[in-house]
Design goal:
Blueprint: E1 3-4, H1 5-11, H2 17-25, E2 29-31, E3 34-35, E4 42-43, E5 49-51, E6 54-55, E7 63-68, E8 96-97, E9 106-112, H3 115-122, E10 130-136, H4 142-149, E11 152-154, E12 157-159, E13 161-170, E14 175-182, H5 189-195, E15 201-209, E16 212-213, E17 222-224, H6 227-238
Parallel strand pairs: 9-15
Antiparallel strand pairs: 1-4, 2-3, 2-5, 5-6, 7-9, 7-17, 8-9, 10-14, 10-15, 11-12, 13-14, 15-16
Helix pairs in contact: 1-2
């Protein structure tokens, strides 16, 4: 099976696909000893890829589940030198988050160096459920509950709500805790869902991704996914 050169470089864990494209254009990449500077060149598994004078070899695939704390960036690096999710994982391999959680959002986020796996989880057609618990700035109205259950349009695109549950209402503090399950992965999507109905999200935590949960992981703790868990996601894609 062949694939684009920039994708192959990224999947080998050297750098991002965008960075790989830059290196190709700069003439820093060779395939089987021949310099390649054309974006979109296709290679196969037997081709020898060399970047900046270094031959690239397949690295062990890594999959991590992290309980992301507040005020941590869902990125590989940050221009403002803020702590990133990658900083919390003890590995020498180049890994990156699958999707993102906002700076002030906590909870379950996955990291990997497997581009195929990342694309599988992020592709909208695969309909992987994501469950969040949101603390709202006022009592959640039952009419809004039924409105959301029917689906709601955000930025001209309908969002289907798979599950919705009112966990708690605090009449004294005028706040609510609502659990919501969606398939979407758009930026700020949960905050925008509630904002469209006049609610501010005071706190937001992702508690489930597909069949994965935080289990007993404390904030900032992580674990590796098992081979079985990784295979289960591929199985979901085939079903």
């Amino acid at each position: 099976m062949d694939e684009k050169l920039q994708k192959r470089i990224a999947n080998l864990g050297y750098c991002s696909r965008r960075k790989a494209e830059e290196l190709i254009q700069l003439g820093k990449v060779k395939v089987n000893g021949i310099k390649v500077d054309k974006i979109g060149t296709r290679v196969n598994l037997n081709d020898i890829i060399n970047v900046n004078g270094k031959n690239l070899f397949a690295r062990p695939k890594l999959y991590f589940l992290l309980n992301k704390p507040r005020n941590v960036i869902s990125s590989v690096q940050d221009p403002q030198n803020r702590k990133t999710v990658v900083d919390l994982i003890n590995t020498n391999e180049r890994i990156y988050p699958i999707g993102r959680l906002d700076y002030d959002t906590t909870g379950l986020i996955l990291l990997t160096n497997d581009g195929t796996f990342a694309n599988l989880l992020m592709h909208p057609k695969n309909l992987i459920e994501k469950t969040y618990v949101a603390k709202l700035n006022k009592i959640f109205n039952i009419d809004d509950y039924y409105l959301l259950k029917k689906g709601i349009v955000i930025n001209n695109k309908k969002v289907n709500i798979k599950k919705l549950k009112i966990r708690k209402k605090d009449e004294l503090k005028n706040t609510s805790m609502v659990e919501i399950t969606i398939f979407e992965g758009r930026n700020h999507i949960v905050k925008n869902i509630f904002k469209s109905l006049g609610y501010d999200v005071l706190k937001l935590k992702r508690v489930k991704y597909g069949f994965l949960t935080l289990e007993n992981l404390k904030s900032g703790e992580y674990r590796k996914l098992s081979k079985y868990e990784v295979e289960q996601f591929y199985h979901l894609n085939k079903s």
